[in-house]
Design goal:
Blueprint lengths: L2 E5 L6 H12 L4 E4 L11 E4 L21 H9 L3 E5 L1 H9 L5 E3 L7 E9 L15 E8 L3 E3 L2 H9 L3 E6 L18 E5 L5 E4 L17 H11 L1
Parallel strand pairs: 1-2, 1-3, 3-4, 4-11
Antiparallel strand pairs: 5-8, 6-7, 6-9, 9-10, 10-11
Helix pairs in contact: 1-5
This protein binds glutamine.
Glutamine (GLN) binds next to strand 7.
Subunit structure: Part of the FGAM synthase complex composed of 1 PurL, 1 PurQ and 2 PurS subunits.
Pathway: Purine metabolism; IMP biosynthesis via de novo pathway; 5-amino-1-(5-phospho-D-ribosyl)imidazole from N(2)-formyl-N(1)-(5-phospho-D-ribosyl)glycinamide: step 1/2
Catalytic activity: N(2)-formyl-N(1)-(5-phospho-beta-D-ribosyl)glycinamide + L-glutamine + ATP + H2O = 2-formamido-N(1)-(5-O-phospho-beta-D-ribosyl)acetamidine + L-glutamate + ADP + phosphate + H(+); L-glutamine + H2O = L-glutamate + NH4(+)
């Protein structure tokens, strides 16, 4: 599986995801600086990592969405290349319009860094096929702008097209308000593109993909990708 990780000024999870990709796939991803407009044509996966691109100035992900590499990212998205945006990467994908909706300031206006429980809504994707839909997953979040907002027609479209990948839930798997850390619409934590080949995810699966880090619930996302894209 040939993967590239796009690095923006202020990315801080690029190496974490590179370590996880190497660990799971046995191959080093290509680290690609945002100012380089040319992406290799033979990629299976493009990762937009977490962090604080351009210091989160203007709006999280807004300046990164104008980077020289983004034209190539758009072209590859059109060709159906798989893409994973984690946290700031999700924000960048929304700012580019490759995913619908927006990520606004957290409901309580605070930065939240903690483990949350997640329900994998659909396992019929290249990102989630290795998850057991009956199991509640525990993965960390770390953001101040993770409040996913979409208008009603967009919400209906996401539901109708099975494009909500993951929702915040409680330890028992109940999707309830009390389990919503940031005020996201309908507890949405992860959204798929129309062709289901692009996933934007607010939690950080790469931070819990090794038992030495305290858990492995994030790992199945990468093993799912390896299975689908190799
Ligand atoms: N962990 C991250 O990627 C942080 C995302 C973003 N800069 C925020 O705080 O909302």
């Amino acid at each position: 599986m040939k993967a590239a990780v796009i690095v923006f000024p202020g990315s801080n999870c690029d190496r974490d995801v590179a370590v996880t990709l190497r660990d799971v796939t046995g191959q080093d991803p290509r680290m690609h600086w945002h100012a380089d407009p040319d992406l290799p044509e033979d990629l299976d996966l493009i990762v937009l990592p977490g962090g604080f691109s351009h210091g989160d100035y203007l709006r999280c992900g807004a300046m990164a969405a104008q980077a020289p590499v983004i034209a190539a990212v758009r072209r590859q998205a059109q060709r159906g290349v798989a893409m994973l945006g984690i946290c700031n990467g999700f924000q960048v994908l929304c700012e580019t319009g490759l995913l619908p909706g927006a990520l606004m300031r957290n409901r309580d206006l605070t930065y939240i860094c903690k483990d949350v429980h997640l329900k994998v809504v659909t396992t019929d994707t290249i990102f989630t096929s290795r998850y057991d839909p009956a199991r509640v997953v525990r993965i960390p979040i770390a953001h101040h702008d993770g409040n996913y907002v979409a208008d009603l027609p967009t919400q209906c479209m996401l539901e109708d097209e099975d494009r909500v990948a993951v929702r915040y839930c409680d330890a028992a798997g109940r999707v309830v308000d009390e389990a919503n850390p940031n005020g996201s619409t309908a507890n949405i934590a992860g959204v798929l593109s129309e062709n289901h080949r692009i996933l934007g995810l607010m939690p950080h699966p790469e931070r819990l993909a090794d038992p030495r880090l305290g858990g492995t619930d994030g790992r199945a996302l990468f093993t799912s990708l390896l299975e689908a894209l190799s």
